[in-house]
Task: inverse folding
């Protein structure tokens, strides 16, 4: 077996006895402490942000994965066709869908289905984005909302109405259901 | 019977009681709480963080615009909030522990730490003539003639707290932590005790108050720059300057042993999180855990107090005799004739020094990584023990060859 001889650095006696490394380390930490103390007293830009007062929102990247939400298209049609793919893919099983039929007198009767109920349990959701990725209709998107809080479990359950509220409208993308085509 | 009552000095008792209550409850305990806060803030700024900065005096509740902040440093009430939290937490006693010792252990860590502050001279004298008290009052609870010995005797009882906690918890992490801690504390007590022998030889004295007074007049042990210690004012006698070498060695050994004694990083092997969860207090919760925590900090304060008294002049103001000459005010200590402002200033100086020491403790903690256990033991037994012994002989040699006046 080939042996590899590791070259250990040769230490001077003061390094072996932690004297010079100790002084070096103390200098380093003190420099940080003094720098940050002045930042703290001077109320200048700090390394960290004070969360509720200062928010990171303007820095959020486009691919940020916040709360999942349903969107409508440019005609106000619900995009979701309740295929339930997202329900099946969702790793923590946060989504619960009850599919419903669209009555024949509806202008969008040819879409045939839309969700009767669509619940996302935000206590379970892990913001993985699988639902967005799997959706064939581009109906569910992860928005930039991240401060999802509630005082009860029921409040943390986003129902269909709430999901459309968060999601809003998205235009373009899927046009296959449009009348003029 | 009457003779017995007559022999009791009621005034002395009352003053002692006042001193005990004030020192322990108004100074040491708040200081412990605030050193925890200082540790959190200091570690935060070392690591480019902010630290606890929210818990303030809630003036906004009473209609004020802002909470009080000193220099923009908020969170000054954090220790109260922590204390409240500790009190409100469930005090859980696991079923598998040895109840009696489990209860006893936290007390045994906290109590010795507080007992040792009895002999700590935290100031010179307070001249309370204005309040109709003729005798100046000594700023020390018990002016024992065996101060350092009492201190070592009592503070080494602290190891029982840790051993009992580790043993009575009846689970493996606390047990290992307790074993480590006891071997570490017992080993380092030797070098701790030996390291101050040169100091005691130089003072020729075991009374901490007198040591402080001596340093006040003749220069601190580590700063021999005035009074009898400075060559220019004692007829070019370099004895104290020669003794500076063993004193420095003593100081280094004493400080490092102090770190080991109080289980602080880099020697906190008794409670290292990465290996032992929390060491000997793994099974403790609520106020019992808080007692361990506070005991550690109290021991740190007392240790700093001892280091300050022995090496850094105790309550003495640096260059006090020179300052007095320059300003016309009296900054140095004259037995029985120290004005009230000087007495108060001495107390402030003492606590300022102790606070500086605590900041140093914290600074070291957030700089150094933890040592390995064998390194720790080797350092204690193979280096410090021998070095301390040689140091005693060195001091003796210097004292014989170049005796102090
Ligand atoms: S983001 Fe992930 S966890 Fe959340 S609902 Fe979508 S698939 Fe489920
Ligand atoms: S959101 Fe998309 S994947 Fe989920 S049920 Fe509706 S159409 Fe299907």
Result:
């Amino acid at each position: 077996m080939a042996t590899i001889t590791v070259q250990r650095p040769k230490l001077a006696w003061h390094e072996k006895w932690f004297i010079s490394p100790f002084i070096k380390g103390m200098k380093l930490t003190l420099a940080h402490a003094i720098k940050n103390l002045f930042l703290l007293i001077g109320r200048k830009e700090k390394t960290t942000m004070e969360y509720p007062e200062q928010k990171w929102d303007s820095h959020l990247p486009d691919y940020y994965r916040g709360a999942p939400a349903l969107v409508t298209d440019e005609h106000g049609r619900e995009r979701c066709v309740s295929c339930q793919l997202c329900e099946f893919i969702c790793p923590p099983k946060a989504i619960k869908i009850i599919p419903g039929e669209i009555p024949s007198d509806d202008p969008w009767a040819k879409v045939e289905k839309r969700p009767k109920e669509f619940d996302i349990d935000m206590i379970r959701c892990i913001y993985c984005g699988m639902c967005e990725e799997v959706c064939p209709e581009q109906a569910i998107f992860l928005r930039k909302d991240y401060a999802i809080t509630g005082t009860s479990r029921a409040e943390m359950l986003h129902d269909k109405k709430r999901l459309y509220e968060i999601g809003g409208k998205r235009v373009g993308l899927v046009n296959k259901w449009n009348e003029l085509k | 019977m009457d003779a017995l009552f007559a022999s009791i000095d009621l005034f002395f008792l009352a003053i002692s009681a006042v001193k005990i209550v004030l020192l322990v409850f108004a100074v040491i305990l708040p200081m412990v709480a605030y050193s925890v806060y200082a540790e959190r803030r200091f570690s935060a700024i070392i690591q480019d963080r902010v630290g606890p900065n929210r818990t303030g005096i809630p003036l906004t509740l009473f209609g004020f615009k802002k909470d009080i902040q000193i220099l923009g440093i908020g969170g000054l009430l954090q220790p109260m909030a922590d204390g409240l939290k500790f009190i409100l937490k469930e005090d859980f006693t696991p079923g598998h522990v040895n109840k009696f010792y489990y209860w006893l252990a936290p007390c045994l860590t906290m109590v010795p730490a507080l007992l040792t502050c009895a002999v700590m001279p935290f100031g010179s004298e307070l001249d309370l003539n204005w309040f109709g008290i003729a005798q100046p009052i000594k700023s020390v609870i018990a002016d024992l003639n065996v101060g350092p010995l009492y201190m070592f005797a009592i503070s080494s009882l602290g190891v029982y707290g840790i051993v009992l906690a580790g043993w009575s918890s009846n689970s493996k992490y606390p047990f290992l932590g307790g074993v480590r801690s006891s071997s570490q504390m017992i080993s380092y007590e030797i070098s701790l005790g030996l390291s101050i022998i040169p100091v005691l030889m130089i003072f020729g004295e075991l009374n901490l108050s007198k040591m402080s007074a001596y340093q006040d007049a003749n220069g601190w042990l580590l700063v021999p720059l005035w009074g009898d210690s400075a060559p220019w004012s004692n007829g070019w006698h370099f004895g104290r300057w020669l003794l500076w070498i063993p004193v420095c060695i003593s100081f280094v050994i004493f400080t490092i042993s102090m770190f080991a004694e109080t289980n602080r990083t880099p020697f906190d092997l008794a409670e290292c999180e990465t290996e032992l969860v929390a060491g000997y207090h793994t099974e403790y919760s609520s106020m019992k855990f808080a007692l361990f925590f506070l005991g550690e900090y109290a021991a740190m304060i007392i240790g700093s107090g001892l280091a300050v008294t022995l090496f850094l002049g105790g309550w003495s103001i640096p260059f006090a005799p020179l300052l007095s000459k320059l300003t016309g005010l009296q900054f140095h200590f004259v037995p029985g004739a120290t004005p009230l402002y000087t007495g108060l200033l001495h107390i402030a100086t003492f606590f300022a020094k102790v606070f500086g020491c605590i900041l140093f403790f914290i600074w070291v903690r957030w700089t150094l990584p933890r040592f390995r256990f064998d390194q720790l033991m080797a350092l204690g037994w193979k280096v410090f023990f021998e070095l301390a012994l040689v140091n005693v002989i060195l001091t003796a040699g210097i004292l014989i060859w170049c005796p102090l006046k």
In short: The interface with chain A takes residues 42, 44-50, 71-73, 363-364, 366-368 of chain B (CB under 8 Å). The longest strand of chain B covers residues 125-126. The beta strands of chain B are 125-126, 137-138.
